[in-house]
Design goal:
Elements: H1 2-6, E1 9-10, H2 18-27, H3 36-52, H4 55-76, H5 84-98, H6 100-110, H7 129-156, H8 165-174, H9 176-200, H10 203-209, E2 210-211, H11 214-227, H12 229-246, H13 254-272
Parallel strand pairs: 1-2
Length: 274
């Protein structure tokens, strides 16, 4: 029974002309149209998974040291201060990959299998691990592109360099150049986030669930967005607001927010993909 439940579904890898492309299209997973009720259901299931599994302990032991190290770096080097906000917000760009372990825990719990924190690392045994690595590399490239754009905006707008964190935030929020930088950064950051949401809303969960190529996983994710533009947009807003609230103050809410959103994303995938 366990072997049957854990068996990954394979998708034929076909390449060739127009006829072959039509075959690929037919072989892609079927997707569903969802409503706001499905978003609520996914969030409720994510909270249930969070309360049932100690996944938050993992994030308690990881999030704080990472951000502590980052704050120490910012305090020590004023040249890195302009990247403070891009780096903290950029976490969401690689979030779909970072939450892979949470997807796996939800997948195992859904099948009634044994679940422990060690199973969060079982993703590396998935038959689609090569596709996962390819897609993760793509998200990393998007994150680096975002940091490059953010730093370029800082230089182009010629914002006064800060000598301390308080001075940096004063310049950012209380000066015209700083406010312009905030608006330009928020606009460009929204575009990067929209791209990541479109290509990854179900791509990483489906790579855990099926033996499928990275290209077809992304294509399925794009089809999901095209069929459900309003619910997926609302989902993106929910994730962004949750991460923002979890980050105030001093990121203390992230050890709860990140696992809940991660588990909920798995259940959203179940609603979206047959």
């Amino acid at each position: 029974m366990t072997d049957r439940l854990l068996r990954y579904r394979e998708e034929p890898q076909i390449a060739g002309g127009r006829r072959d492309r039509n075959i690929i299209k037919r072989k892609l997973p079927s997707i569903r149209k969802i409503g706001l009720g499905d978003l609520r259901s996914a969030l409720a299931a994510g909270m249930e998974d969070f309360l049932a599994m100690p996944s938050h302990v993992v994030f308690l032991s990881i999030v704080y040291p990472v951000f502590g190290l980052f704050v120490a770096l910012i305090s020590a080097d004023r040249d890195v201060m302009p990247l403070l906000i891009p780096l903290t917000t950029g976490f969401a760009l690689i979030g779909p990959f970072a939450a892979l372990g949470l997807y796996e825990l939800s997948r195992r719990r859904e099948f009634g299998l044994d679940v422990s924190w060690k199973h969060a690392f079982a993703i590396w045994h998935a038959p689609s691990r090569a596709s996962i690595a390819i897609l993760a590399s793509g998200l990393l490239m998007i994150l680096l592109a975002w940091l490059f754009v953010a730093h370029t905006l800082y230089q182009v707008l010629d914002v006064d360099p800060a000598v301390s964190l308080p001075r940096f935030f004063y310049t950012l929020f209380m000066t015209s150049k700083g406010q312009t930088l905030l608006i330009a950064g928020a606009t460009s950051g929204f575009l990067f986030a929209a791209v990541v949401l479109a290509v990854s809303v179900v791509s990483f969960p489906i790579l855990l669930d099926r033996n499928i190529s990275a290209a077809n996983a992304v294509l399925t994710s794009l089809r999901v967005v095209r069929l459900n533009p309003v619910p997926i947009s609302i989902w993106g807003i929910i994730v962004a607001l949750a991460l923002a609230l979890g980050s105030i103050p001093l990121f203390v809410g992230l050890p709860v927010v990140i696992p809940v959103i991660g588990h909920a994303t798995w259940h959203l995938y179940r609603h979206l993909v047959e």
